[in-house]
User: What shape does this take?
Amino acid sequence: MYLIIAYDVNVARVNKVKKFLRKYLHWVQNSVFEGEATQATLEEIKIGLKEIIDEGEDMVVIYKFRSVEAFKKEIIGVEKGYCEEII
Amino acid sequence: MYLIIAYDVNVARVNKVKKFLRKYLHWVQNSVFEGEATQATLEEIKIGLKEIIDEGEDMVVIYKFRSVEAFKKEIIGVEKGYCEEII
Assistant: This one.
């Protein structure tokens, strides 16, 4: 499947979440990641996120698609994720 | 169509973007909105965003789907958008 994950977490945990998601997905922009994942990987991601975040304060939204073909993507402004990868 | 819009903009413009997108879509969490839109509305949103953001510094990513059925959504932690609506 294909995932888009966006998080809104306390600044104290934001880098931990970013570092963790980087192991599985591509960074798109500040607090958004996307990429292919198996069901098993998704479960791993969810377990890891629950360990890092405070579920009473933070929020992570996971959008799940059958494939990357399920959507079209358009960017306005700079492609931050792309810049990061080529630096 | 259905849209998910995530933005990563300079703090000087973040409230402007939020206020603008609120006119068209539902707030999901810090810097993420989603909702139904026609092609005409999407064009209006894009024009408006280009007026607000600095295209050399900011980034807005627009994910476009045929319908809300194109994805499944899962939330870990608090449902911020929902809280905001009921307050």
